[in-house]
């Protein structure tokens, strides 16, 4: 027999970014989902801006932040990849997040893109109820998405994405706790969709602004066994925000960003600190709609579920970038609070970006605490046929 705690441990490790205790030591009424890795910033650019990105300058990572931005991207084609060590602050050496994305401009109005997320939890011992090692697990998760973005007019774009998701946490192990029936497990597969809107407008020759709205990961629940009472919502999410750009002169430019982020997942209904909600009786769409009004604490708790991201970016001669950001989440909803810093260098085709996360709470289980992330990108500028008004700086 395998321990039930094996599966529990894997879920806890995957959800470490979202399931925390407050600094006061009181348990939090945070919202738990399956495969929360889908919400982790995959790039060093936005992660250096406090995870603000729904209206940031379009780039190859737009499928994560707002797929509609691809329609305004300044490039004919491009690829990017990021490597993110996981739980290094807790001395875990074999857990990593890898991300690869690319885009191709079809014409002046439309762009297609694809992205791949791969998360490995390394090797884990599989034990029986007596603690004896009986094998090794190699848990991993991945998601693959394709995107189409279209300009509706000179200032507004719409994006749509489809995503295949696979989460293999147990490698098909049969699990049970002592005295309980065996439970067969399998990988959890799902399909999800994203939809985004992006609007950008010049105020004058020096100033411009952008607004974005993005709903992501709206799809079927994840199930790791044949038990219909054991299903997890995907981390369906709503992100809205804006960007203000000031081109100070020919060499200096500043971007200021603000994002608001909220899970479109039902809030746990607590009774004597026990989660009483039966998620299997709630559909995906119904859960997304009721997520705006189901918090036990009413509207005050609903507002606590909104995460805040603030970022500032400075560019010199469109070659060197310096970034600073802050992320805030209420203590009762996870309590993540952290500063982010980063920098970037852009060459003729290639660019390199880095970011670093510094927690600002006394107690933090953020898996990216004190982690340096590295991003490599390559972009080919538009040819004459696609150069007309593809994007604004």
Can you give a write-up of this model?
There is one protein chain. The protein has 393 residues and is mainly beta. It has 5 helices and 23 strands. A 14-stranded antiparallel β-barrel has the order 2-3-4-7-8-11-12-15-16-19-20-21-22-23. A hairpin with a 4-residue loop joins strand 3 and strand 4 (110-120). The longest helix is centred in the N-terminal third of the chain and has 11 residues, at 4-14.
Q: What is the chain-wise order of helices and strands?
A: EHHHEEEEEEEEEEEEEEEEEHHEEEEE
Seen as an oligomer or otherwise, the chain set is single chain
Radius of gyration from CA coordinates: 21 Å
Record field, number of beta strands: 23
Estimate the helix proportion, in percent. Answer: under 10%
Tell me, what's the shape?
A: globular
Give the rounded overall mean pLDDT: 83
N/C terminus separation: 60 Å
Specify the structural class: mainly beta
Per-chain topology:
Blueprint: E1 2-3, H1 4-14, H2 44-47, H3 62-65, E2 77-85, E3 96-105, E4 110-120, E5 124-127, E6 133-137, E7 140-151, E8 156-168, E9 174-176, E10 183-184, E11 188-202, E12 207-219, E13 222-223, E14 231-232, E15 237-247, E16 252-263, E17 270-271, E18 274-275, H4 284-290, H5 299-304, E19 307-316, E20 320-328, E21 337-346, E22 350-359, E23 372-380
Parallel strand pairs: 1-9
Antiparallel strand pairs: 2-3, 2-23, 3-4, 4-7, 5-6, 7-8, 8-11, 9-10, 11-12, 12-15, 13-14, 15-16, 16-19, 17-18, 19-20, 20-21, 21-22, 22-23
